[in-house]
Design a protein that fits this description.
Elements (H helix, E strand, L loop, with lengths): L2 H9 L46 H9 L10 H16 L8 H21 L5 H14 L38 E5 L5 E3 L5 E10 L3 E7 L5 H4 L1 H7 L8 H18 L3 E5 L6 E10 L2 E9 L8 E6 L2 E6 L8
Antiparallel strand pairs: 1-3, 2-3, 3-4, 4-7, 5-8, 6-7, 8-9
Helix pairs in contact: 3-4, 3-5, 3-8, 4-5
């Protein structure tokens, strides 16, 4: 490629077939173009073999901004999006509450620091941003942010008591689960405060557990349902393009919907029911699922109450059911 061809390639309007091209030993900030296709001979950009101090033509910088990547020391948007998703996952927590919350915090922070180190290694995040993102994770985990450490020093972060013993392994579940009865709920179809409706379709009683069948139709408004979580995510998305923000918000909403624990169960004799799993699926404007609880309903219980957020569904229990 001669000099004239190179100038034409560098100054033309970018398109989706352009690719990211680096010269020898160039850092991430010295890019020429970003795209997703393959470059032809006439599309090889002037960055090949150029020195880091060489001035970029204005159109190249403008074209790169159109794709969401910025230069001049600003954070890479793909790196920011990845860290934002890790923070959102930490705020939600695991689907099942951990046996050792402090150990869960330690593992989450360790994986986040590994991600920061990897991004720093490829030039996608600056030294000054490392401490800020670490503090964001600490806040997401319910801890206080830390003050900067003096130059040349390091900090060890730990959670809980040193040398804490791991909890004992729980007993194995019973080998057999017998179906006992399917009972309906009173007034099973109710409106939700954040839009949509919830229906409690029936409660399955087993010898070792309880399973609640439910249906959401029409679906609630996720923007109203997860307004607090979306507000917490907003600072992590600062500076990203609107399209990028929408993708990350939609992914967060999807994860929140999968992990949301809206349903709880109580009876009239004080049994402590714990969630043991479940599942859901749907399409269009509805979603069906089931939520399982353990242990079984005691024989002396005469009433269950299924709670979905602030709503309570009363479930009268048959007196002659077999709970043995």
């Amino acid at each position: 490629m001669d000099g004239d061809d190179r100038s034409k390639a560098a100054l033309r309007t970018p398109n989706r077939d352009d690719v990211l091209v680096f010269g020898p030993r160039q850092p991430l900030q010295h890019f020429a173009w970003l795209g997703r296709g393959q470059a032809t001979h006439d599309e090889i950009l002037w960055a090949i073999g150029s020195a880091p101090h060489q001035t970029r033509p204005p159109d190249v910088a403008v074209g790169s901004l159109d794709y969401g990547l910025t230069a001049g020391g600003q954070m890479d948007p793909f790196a920011q999006a990845h860290l934002s998703e890790l923070l959102s996952a930490a705020r939600m927590g695991p689907p099942v509450p951990p046996a050792d919350p402090d150990e869960q915090k330690r593992l989450t922070l360790m994986m986040f620091n590994a991600a920061l180190a990897a991004l720093k290694g490829v030039g996608a995040i600056a030294d000054g941003e490392m401490a800020d993102w670490t503090n964001r994770m600490l806040v997401a985990l319910g801890e206080e942010p830390l003050e900067p450490v003096p130059p040349g020093t390091a900090r060890l972060i730990s959670f809980g008591r040193n040398g804490a013993q791991s909890p004992e392994r729980p007993a194995d579940p019973p080998p057999e689960s017998r179906f006992l009865a399917l009972v309906p709920a009173d007034e099973p179809d109710r409106p939700l405060a954040y839009g949509g409706r919830i229906q409690i379709l029936g409660i399955e009683l087993y010898s070792d557990k309880v399973s609640v069948n439910w249906r959401l139709a029409p679906l609630p408004d996720p923007q109203a349902l997860f307004v607090a979580e979306l507000s917490e995510q907003e600072p992590d998305l600062e500076g990203l393009s609107d399209d990028f923000k929408k993708i990350l918000r939609d992914k967060l909403i999807q994860r929140l919907q999968m992990q949301r624990r809206s349903l709880t169960l109580i009876d009239d004799v004080g049994t402590e029911f714990r969630s043991t799993g479940g599942g859901s699926g749907g399409g269009g404007n509805e979603r069906r699922g089931h939520s399982d609880f353990s242990p079984a309903v005691p024989a002396r219980a005469r009433r269950l109450s299924v709670r979905w957020d602030e709503l309570e569904f009363v479930v009268p229990l048959p007196p002659n059911r077999d709970s043995a």
